[in-house]
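input
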Amino acid sequence: MKTLLRTFALVVFAGILSGCGYNSIQREDEAVKAAWSEVLNQYQRRADLVPNLVNTVKGYAQHEERVLTEVTAARAKVGQVQLSPEQANDPEALAKFQAAQGQLSGALSRLLVVSENYPQLKADGSFRDLQAQLEGTENRITVARKRYVDAVQSYNTLIRSFPNNLTAKVMGYQVKPNFSVENEKAISTAPTVDFNSTPAPAASAAH
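output
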């Protein structure tokens, strides 16, 4: 008899949790964590390309030291700003992470623009391969970020809705911060280099 009562109580309790949205909140929270892990994976993939890309460019454009230094420094900063899914719940920490990644994006874009002045670099097979990998990774970053944004929006909508908001309050679930984008179109466009274009003449060192 006690076993039956215990089983019945567990069934009722599970039904209460399900009815108040607990299970749904858990599911949405896990979806956010999974989406964040994919964001980190794609950003790490990009960071891993940087050393070889810098070394390849340096072989043809050693005097572009400023741009090369910017990329190297931005890559180092990205390595110092790593966030777990739990840390990504901190708006300030997420903003710092986004800023660091944005700096690396800008530095890489400037590096690719500079490469246009060096026909031999553009013709280098290793550089072409790295550039293609970078462009593909930027596209995957865009997709991963979009999925994370959508997952966070879905989670936040759920825990703000009645009666889920009551459960969220009792269980300590809070609204999660999200990526803020000043220019979504610009960020969603992977940096590209047109290898078929006529290179701009390099500035002469002599005056």
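quick obs: The radius of gyration is 24 Å.
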